[in-house]
Amino acid sequence: MKVGRRKFLRAGSAALVGLALKTDRPITGSFVNDSLQMGHLLRDRAAFPPARRIEKFPVVIVGGGIAGLSAAWRLHKRGFTDFVVLEMNPQAGGNARWGENEITAYPWAAHYVPVPGPKAAYVRELFEDLGVLKNGQWEERNLCFAPQERLFLYGRWQDGLEPAIGLTQKDRDQFQHLEELFAKFRASGEFTIPLELGRSSQYEDLDRLSFADWLQQQGCDSRLVNWYMNYACRDDYGALAKDTSAWAGVHYFCSRETEEKGPLTWPEGNGWITRRLLERVGENVRISQMVHRIAETKRGASVFAGDTEFQSEFVIFAAPTFLAPYLVEGFPRLRDFTYSSWLTANLTLERLPDSRGAEPTWDTVFLDSPTLGYVDATHQSLRTHIERTVWTFYWALADGTPAQNRQLLLDKDWNYWKEAILHDLERVHSDVRQCVSRIDVMRMGHAMIRPAVGSVFSAERRRLTSRHTRLLFANSDLSSISIFEEAQYHGVLAAQTVLDNLHGHR
């Protein structure tokens, strides 16, 4: 029986006392990387003090996530260094931030990049710069080691995440039918990464219905098929199939090569990429600089952060797009941008728990869990024996509305989430409470853009991709899909547009 999120959480809360008695190991931890309070100042239109000083830069980049750092990388690589990146948080990277303890570095969100295909030219160029791609060959050390993925279902493990155990003939027929459909979509060349290189109106009708409705039209009523389709949407979009555009659902399965190697991963996940970018452009990045107003001027725009007015010719807005109406003077309210809420946690383990005879793997998922499972930060280690490790646990709050889930993140304390996480894990790892010494939790109310029905081909979204103003938007939001390649593409494209139009620089 599928366990709904609220039922699961109620069960976790009801069992708090009984569960706590099972361990004699104290578990410490806290909420980390919280920026809720700062964001709510903008939401509530709080008053900010006037600027007391002025700094002038031809280019100001707002947001130090992958999009902003990629724009900075492009400018720097083309020999232009007179720019500044303003990042609200005390650490750059956005969804590619990382943490580190005495055991290992670990990711806080994005933890891999699928091996980019030939159309992802900017990503391949970056990986050549970083030494990940050499003479057309991927550095083996950066490719995920085996075993990569496992799924726990019906009391046992299987390799891979698509259910392969206990299938009926109906299940197999429906999986096969979908694969044949996806192969035709893939062959069309319309479902590409980056999206803008392939997206056209040929399949625009798919954006007008949900992925769940499309699956129903295809006769897909298998429980396992629908679980896997929902897992895919929760994993990449933080949404259920019923809340996802059918176009985006199809894109998930049709946009990459079927026999690709990879993925590319590191102990700190995509934080490794952030680190390498900061080695190149870190001198231009200012952390803990919350932008609170952007005013366009005759010669560009003024960006206000803290007590400083940054006067510029061009602004690259690489922050999440939902912030634009709160920051940019006269910016209209957005209608077609919906954001999913996530919870991630890093668990420090003093020893590996019982895994019912299976060897450790990189990515672990449980059938019918409301969570997305966990990845092991030490999986890429070359050590022959590993006892202590860190698991990064992922939970896309997909049931209910995004607003309800944001409120849930605010209402529940750290102990509540600690117990809910452990309750999920101990269904498979019965002794996990004796192994965990610390759980740090990160709450993200607007973790990623959600490709809701009608949003992929939205006119509002198309308007924001305009390259004819001095305020250039550059975020994966513009693609409606929050993945590394899209963020990097829009960041690089915005930077190149600036270089093409900046006075005195070609």
Q: How many helices does DSSP assign?
A: 15
Strand order of the largest sheet: 1-20-16-19-18-17-9-10
Task: Kindly report the oligomeric state of this protein.
Answer: single chain
Q: What is the CA–CA distance across the termini?
A: 61 Å
Classify the beta-strand content into a percent band.
Answer: 15-25%
| DSSP strand count | 21
Mean pLDDT: 92
Give the low-pLDDT segments. Answer: 1-23
Q: Rg, please?
A: 23 Å
Derived structural class: alpha/beta
Task: State the share of residues found in helices, binned by percent.
Answer: 25-40%
Largest sheet: 8 strands, mixed
Apparent shape: globular
Question: Could you characterize what this model shows?
Answer:
The structure is a single chain. The chain is an alpha/beta fold and 506 residues long. The protein has 15 helices and 21 strands. The strands form five sheets. Strands 1-20-16-19-18-17-9-10 form an eight-stranded mixed beta sheet, with helices on both faces. Helix 1 (5-14) crosses helix 13 and helix 6 packs across helix 9. The longest helix is centred in the middle third of the chain and has 20 residues, at 169-188. The relative contact order is 0.21.
Summarize the structure.
This protein has 506 residues and is α/β, with parallel strands linked by helices. The protein is built from 15 helices and 21 strands. The termini are far apart.
